[in-house]
């Protein structure tokens, strides 16, 4: 079997050692005589996995005692609704910093349930090509919370300095760049992330949640949708996707063994630097539509002179064993998703291929 280089935006590539580890013990988890996927979520075998996953998050992200790690289902999309349902009180409004599709969808869900306002935008001439700076934000000091999407997979933009919301709880959708570098978790009321980009497989959503905010969960919403229920039940109030958590645990072990978040940042900046260097060195053939200061380290995007050339690049890359580089259908172009698990050597293979393509077709 020959594995391809997978640049897909999510579900995305996972570290090969993580896949091999799961493969080797899939039928017999730690000598228990059955797969982890068959174990009860309340049994000792899974409990060990559950606690280790939480402990690794706390270690790798330096999560303070004021916060807890929760596991939920429904992806980040479910959190678009659950955040306002739990954190916005009667008569309150919430602030949203709008930088593209995902933050726009989050705000749309909040508006179904109550008041929300756009406190900043990255839109320029009708396109989301940057993230707003702090001075450009119009944050409401009386808002229930301030929400932003830290990395925008479709547009290829990313916050390199996070918004300062003062005393208003800061809520971040970090689905596509959680653990890409060290951050100060204490500045956030809530971080949530669908696992399928930078943490593991689809099926589980990780929340790093400031525990005092659980008291905001109203009794007027179903118990299963209350953050307080999830916190009080240690995410085990019902059957959670145990195998997905197990895989997240394995990915976190890999991150730890690589050197943790500082090592991930070094690795990711190297990879992104290779791709952006290729783009900037060939301005007549490649073009990145994103403001330089807002460029994503996770999802570099770029265009070629024509759509036909883009289609040709995508087809020839696939023939060469590099898949998933087609841009999102809403924007087109080329997108290379280079999350933590993507090997620098594989990024370099793509860069060499793209340079040769430019020479041949330029």
How would you explain this protein's 3D organization?
35% of the residues lie in helices and 15% in strands. It is built from 9 helices and 15 strands. It has helices spanning 16-24, 44-60, 75-87, 101-113, 227-232, 242-258, 260-281, 307-319, 344-361; strands spanning 5-6, 67-72, 93-98, 115-121, 123-124, 127-128, 146-149, 151-152, 157-158, 170-173, 190-194, 205-210, 301-302, 322-323, 334-335. Strands 2-12-11-10-7-3-4 form a 7-stranded mixed beta sheet, with helices on both faces. Strands 1-14 form a two-stranded parallel sheet. The longest helix has 22 residues, at 260-281. It starts with a strand and ends with a helix. The model has no long low-confidence stretch (mean pLDDT 97).
Helix percentage range? 25-40%
Q: If you average the pLDDT, what whole number results? A: 97
Shape: globular
Instruction: Order the strands across the largest sheet as they lie in space.
Output: 2-12-11-10-7-3-4
Stretches where pLDDT falls below 50 for ≥5 residues? none
- Assign the structural class, choosing from mainly alpha, mainly beta, alpha/beta, alpha+beta, or little secondary structure: alpha/beta
Instruction: Give the CATH level 1 class of the largest domain.
Output: Alpha Beta
The proportion of strand residues reads 5-15%
Largest sheet: 7 strands, mixed
Total domain modules? 2
Could you please say which CATH topology of the largest domain applies here? Aspartate Aminotransferase, domain 2
What's the CATH H-level superfamily name of the largest domain? Answer: Type I PLP-dependent aspartate aminotransferase-like (Major domain)
Pattern of helices and strands:
EHHEHEHEEEEEEEEEHHHEHEEH
- Count of helices? 9
Give the N-to-C terminal Cα separation: 34 Å
The CATH architecture classification of the largest domain is 3-Layer(aba) Sandwich
What is the radius of gyration computed over CA atoms, rounded to a whole number of angstroms?
Answer: 21 Å
Strand tally is: 15
